[in-house]
């Protein structure tokens, strides 16, 4: 899989603190729960993925893919990253490609992201992937305060400044890809969830904790190809073959 370029736009980070054992039970053995102030975190992240294309090609040839993901925060061999439980996206061919080449748990969904006419974003996703649990998410969100840099808030940095994601292939092996982008500019946010069955669809009880919300207008991103993680090779800087 060739490296990709894209833009992430109009993101909500809806972050729920949960006991570490809640997350650990759902992770591959090679991954360790990463915590902040003793809590693990489950984050629901709706956004739109714009101008997705092979790295080096102009944005004009890219495609736009509104997306919803449920993720947590992990380390692997000491390297921090994100682990995705699910990614719901519109665009059947893109979903199949991401499953095949990046081993990401993408699901085909009908997704829309629109302005609510009052400075906010209305987002709706309904999973339609054949043979999988349905998931429906509807929310309206908006920035609620002045912008700040993620580095100004240790918790915000923990939850957003992640430059690697981990996945598990069909053979059980952990894989990873690196991402590169400018540091996040964030806003405190408010969000109203009308429907959220995403946790249940991915095998979790809905957290009872109060979420922390952040909004971002977005960043431009480059993502590497997916590689198989091998602890011994990683420690000495050897690239492992796909």
Tell me what the structure shows:
This protein is mostly beta strands and 242 residues long. It has helices at 20-24, 92-101, 154-160, 198-201, 231-235; strands at residues 4-18, 32-33, 40-54, 63-76, 79-89, 106-115, 121-127, 136-143, 148-149, 164-168, 174-180, 185-196, 212-223, 227-228. The radius of gyration is 17 Å and the shape is globular. Residues 232-242 have low confidence and may be disordered.
Envelope shape? globular
Bin the helical content: 10-25%
Measured on Cα atoms, how large is the radius of gyration?
17 Å
Helix/strand class: mainly beta
Mean pLDDT: 89
The strand count comes to 14
Strand content: over 45%
Order of helices and strands: EHEEEEHEEEEHEEEHEEH
Span between N and C termini? Answer: 9 Å
- The number of helices is 5
Give a quick account of the main beta sheet: strands, pairing sense, barrel closure.
14 strands, mixed
Give the low-confidence spans: 232-242
Spell out the blueprint of helices and strands.
Blueprint: E1 4-18, H1 20-24, E2 32-33, E3 40-54, E4 63-76, E5 79-89, H2 92-101, E6 106-115, E7 121-127, E8 136-143, E9 148-149, H3 154-160, E10 164-168, E11 174-180, E12 185-196, H4 198-201, E13 212-223, E14 227-228, H5 231-235
Parallel strand pairs: 5-6, 5-10
Antiparallel strand pairs: 1-3, 1-13, 2-4, 3-4, 4-5, 6-7, 7-8, 8-12, 9-12, 10-11, 11-13, 11-14, 12-13
């Amino acid at each position: 899989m060739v490296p990709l370029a894209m833009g992430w736009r109009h993101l909500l980070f809806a972050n729920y603190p949960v006991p570490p054992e809640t997350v650990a039970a759902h992770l591959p053995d090679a991954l360790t729960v990463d915590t902040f102030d003793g809590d693990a975190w489950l984050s629901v992240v709706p956004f739109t993925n714009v101008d997705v294309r092979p790295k080096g090609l102009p944005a004009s040839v890219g495609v736009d893919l509104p997306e919803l993901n449920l993720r947590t925060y992990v380390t692997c061999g000491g390297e921090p990253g994100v682990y995705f439980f699910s990614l719901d996206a519109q665009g059947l061919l893109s979903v199949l490609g991401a499953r095949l080449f990046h081993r990401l748990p993408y699901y085909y969904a009908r997704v829309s992201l629109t302005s609510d006419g009052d400075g906010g974003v209305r987002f709706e996703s309904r999973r339609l992937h054949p043979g999988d649990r349905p998931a429906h998410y509807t929310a309206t969100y908006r920035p609620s305060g002045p912008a700040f840099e993620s580095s100004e808030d240790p918790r915000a940095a923990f939850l957003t400044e992640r430059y690697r994601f981990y996945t598990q292939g069909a053979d059980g092996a952990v894989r990873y890809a690196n991402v590169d982008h400018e540091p996040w500019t964030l806003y405190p946010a408010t969000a109203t969830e009308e429907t959220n069955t995403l946790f249940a669809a991915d095998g979790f009880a809905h957290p009872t904790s109060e979420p922390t919300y952040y909004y971002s207008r977005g960043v431009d991103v480059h993502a590497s190809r997916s590689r198989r993680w091998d602890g011994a090779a990683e420690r000495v800087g050897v690239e492992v073959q796909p």
